């Protein structure tokens, strides 16, 4: 009887721990690596077990009448508005990280990168893009 009681307590504690786990989904703010200036808001969401991120707002557009486009993109995103654009696509979960080949887009240069994303804490996200052995990591803040 004691064993069942302890097992139930253990089961309830695990259930409550899982309920309070951190979520990578939500709106994240991106920042310029050099100046620290707020650049954009990206909504991260899961679809069919994969992770996606879409730009929902740009903060660096100087002229509000100008629509910022992906001038250097070479795929279907060429000259399309950056707001609404997928900049993170199809990352698969691997433990506590999400990763994928060609999964991250930098709209400033049109290049795609192999990527890896993980939570540092509830309010800080690490986003790392790779080209071969070289990588760059940005840190995004939860909005």
From TrEMBL:
Matching Pfam families: DUF2147
Ranges where the DUF2147 domain occurs: 26-142
Listed PANTHER family: BLL5882 PROTEIN, BLR1215 PROTEIN
The protein, known as: DUF2147 domain-containing protein
Organism: Brumimicrobium glaciale
């Amino acid at each position: 009887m004691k064993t069942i009681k302890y097992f139930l307590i253990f089961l309830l504690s695990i259930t409550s721990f899982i309920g309070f786990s951190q979520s990578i989904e939500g709106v994240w703010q991106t920042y310029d690596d050099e100046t620290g200036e707020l650049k954009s808001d990206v909504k991260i969401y899961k679809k069919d077990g994969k992770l996606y991120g879409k730009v929902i707002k740009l903060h660096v557009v100087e002229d509000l009448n100008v629509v910022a486009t992906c001038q250097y993109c070479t795929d279907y995103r060429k000259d399309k508005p950056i707001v609404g654009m997928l900049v993170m696509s199809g990352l698969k979960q691997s433990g506590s990280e999400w990763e994928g080949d060609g999964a991250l887009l930098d709209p400033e240069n049109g290049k795609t990168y192999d990527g890896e994303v993980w939570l540092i804490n509830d309010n800080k996200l690490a986003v790392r893009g790779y080209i071969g052995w070289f990588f760059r990591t940005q840190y995004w803040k939860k909005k």
